[in-house]
């Protein structure tokens, strides 16, 4: 039933578990070397291919296991995808770029392959955010950065998300973007995000959410929330907070402005419904772990009088 | 409802609502130490053609009880202990058999002309007539968590048009049909009653705007951002959403049929 095919480089051993200790040490050494401008061995690949090897000491090419995996769901994003991938590779010297092309008919996946990305291809659209989960499942990095194929965000602005996970111990590095809120009535998605954070007792997160890109996850976060929940980002968001992961709004990228005017696919109202439904699903999960009030008690209320 | 007489809908805010003839109307007033405001509240209610005014006193240690008793038209229900939020409304609703029931609080005096609109809305066929607080709300970025919860509940129930208007807020009025369908017991958790009303297909809409945001009396329990009352109301809304999801599924009507989740599951096998 393999209706998808994977192209580009793939590690022979599949996912390799590294002890975080040793990988940190090795990774740090590797990074320092590169920062001094002595770029690591490129093994004959052009820099743009992105398959730079992580060097640990004097070992030979251990594997082409990247430190950072950038996941880009793509659906007919021919105009932007090349630039998006280029910026993704520039996020960190040890980066793999995974493009999950679904329902693409405009040649986006060919462009992505040429740009050096691993391309996971599906003939039909996967639906909202499923591509993220598919990409995350294939990712091998310690840090997973999620971006969109239709939005070119400079590497400079993507790095803080990766660095928050790599260096500051953040598990979920969110885009500090809460949508336009200086108005009396906000978009239903903005409302849903704010409400979920309030319920999760994280009003400080305002309207930030894993629904929005860019955001980065640690490998720990991915394991704990589960790959499949990434297909329902508010569910993953709620799980991350409830499971005690470090969730932090890192830097603001105004994706509202960057989002190009939507084509017919997204202008359809159901997108709003999908996201509102996602938030309800997240709430249902939170409730299932505790009580029907998520800990917001009404001790003083004598319900037995009310019949 | 005994009368089907149509009442002309007021054109502007200032038009006086015409009350129906033949409909039995009552008011439920909940009181917890409201001696300062209760006389004003009852005086305004006295201007309305009410069949009965049920005053539910609970935990009062001031002169609220004797004030209530001094109003001849008031039916006084007195509990020495505090019943907690909104329980009094449920008790009042249980006690009256009127066609239209108006719910007010003892701490917020509201002019009879304003109150009439809520009664008139029910007479016109509305089942739950809410107070439209939208004109008094700040920009969204300054909303408190309670207001967000209210708007999110309505959105989730497929009624974003109701914005942040809620049965948590007074004044509001209900038809007998609504009280019977929802059950008076549920009124002790107003957002739950609202969810039940919308889910049951009852006619829920706003009837008038009364600014109760300013006049709500400050008590020790409702001051500050993360106060006890705000936590209670947030919890009520979560409970209401869960109540709705029990019947309507964990996404309510917000489907994601285009999402092929099984693809992820299959890959993991």
TrEMBL record, chain A:
Transmembrane segments: none
Cofactor(s) in the UniProt record: Mg(2+)
Residue intervals of the Glycosyltransferase 2-like domain: 69-174
The entry's keywords: Glycosyltransferase, Magnesium, Transferase
Residue ranges, annotated region (Disordered): 1-52
Basic residues bias: start-end ranges: 31-44
Enzyme nomenclature, EC number: 2.4.1.266
Domain of life, source organism: Bacteria
Top-level enzyme category: transferase
Catalytic activity: (2R)-3-phosphoglycerate + UDP-alpha-D-glucose = (2R)-2-O-(alpha-D-glucopyranosyl)-3-phospho-glycerate + UDP + H(+); an NDP-alpha-D-glucose + (2R)-3-phosphoglycerate = (2R)-2-O-(alpha-D-glucopyranosyl)-3-phospho-glycerate + a ribonucleoside 5'-diphosphate + H(+)
Family in the record: Belongs to the glycosyltransferase 2 family.
Protein's UniProt name: Glucosyl-3-phosphoglycerate synthase
């Amino acid at each position: 039933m393999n209706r998808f095919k994977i192209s580009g480089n793939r590690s022979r051993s599949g996912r390799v578990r590294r002890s975080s200790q040793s990988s940190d040490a090795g990774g740090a050494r590797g990074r320092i070397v590169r920062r001094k401008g002595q770029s690591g061995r490129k093994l004959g690949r052009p820099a743009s291919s992105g398959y730079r090897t992580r060097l640990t000491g004097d070992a030979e090419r251990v594997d082409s296991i990247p430190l950072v995996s950038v996941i880009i769901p793509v659906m007919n994003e021919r105009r932007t995808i090349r630039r998006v991938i280029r910026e993704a590779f520039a996020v960190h010297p040890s980066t793999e770029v995974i493009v999950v092309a679904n329902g693409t008919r405009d040649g986006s996946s060919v462009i992505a392959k040429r740009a050096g990305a691993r391309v996971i291809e599906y003939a039909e659209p996967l639906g909202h955010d499923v591509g993220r989960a598919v990409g995350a499942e294939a990712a091998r990095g310690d840090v997973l950065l999620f971006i969109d194929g239709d939005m070119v965000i400079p590497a400079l602005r993507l790095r803080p998300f990766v660095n928050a996970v790599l260096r500051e111990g953040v598990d979920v590095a969110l885009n500090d973007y809460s949508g336009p809120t200086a108005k009396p009535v906000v978009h239903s998605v903005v409302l849903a995000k704010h409400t979920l954070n309030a319920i999760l007792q994280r009003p400080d997160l305002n309207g930030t959410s894993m629904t929005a890109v860019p955001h980065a996850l640690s490998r720990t976060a991915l394991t704990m929330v589960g790959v499949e929940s990434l297909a329902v980002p508010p569910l993953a968001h709620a799980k991350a907070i409830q499971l005690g992961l470090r969730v932090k709004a890192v830097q603001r990228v105004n994706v509202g402005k960057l989002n190009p005017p939507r084509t017919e696919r997204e202008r359809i109202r159901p997108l709003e419904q999908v996201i509102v439904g996602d938030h309800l699903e997240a709430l249902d999960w939170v409730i299932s772990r505790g009580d029907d009030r998520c800990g917001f008690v009404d001790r003083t209320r004598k319900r037995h009088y009310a019949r | 409802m005994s009368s089907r007489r149509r009442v002309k809908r007021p054109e502007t805010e200032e038009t006086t609502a015409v009350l129906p003839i033949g409909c039995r109307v009552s008011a439920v007033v909940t009181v917890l130490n409201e001696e300062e405001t209760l006389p004003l509240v009852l005086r305004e209610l006295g201007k309305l053609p009410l069949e009965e005014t049920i005053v539910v006193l609970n935990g009062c240690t001031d002169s609220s009880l004797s004030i209530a008793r001094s109003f001849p038209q008031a039916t006084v229900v007195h509990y020495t202990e505090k019943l907690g939020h909104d329980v009094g409304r449920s008790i009042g609703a249980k006690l009256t058999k009127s066609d239209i029931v108006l719910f007010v609080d003892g701490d917020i005096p509201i002019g009879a002309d304003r109150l009439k609109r809520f009664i008139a809305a029910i007479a016109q066929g509305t089942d739950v007539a809410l107070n439209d607080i939208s004109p008094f709300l700040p920009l969204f970025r300054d909303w408190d968590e309670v207001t967000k919860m209210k708007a999110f509940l309505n959105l989730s129930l497929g009624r974003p048009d109701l914005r942040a208007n809620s049965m948590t807020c007074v004044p509001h009025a209900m038809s007998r049909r609504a009280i019977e369908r929802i059950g008076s017991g549920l009124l002790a958790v107003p957002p739950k009653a609202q969810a039940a009303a919308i889910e049951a297909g009852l006619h829920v809409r706003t009837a008038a705007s009364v600014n109760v945001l300013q006049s709500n009396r400050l008590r020790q329990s409702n001051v500050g951002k993360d106060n006890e009352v705000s936590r209670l109301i947030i919890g009520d809304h979560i409970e209401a959403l869960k109540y709705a999801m029990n019947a309507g599924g964990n996404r309510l009507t917000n489907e994601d049929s285009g999402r092929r989740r099984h693809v992820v599951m299959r890959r993991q096998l």
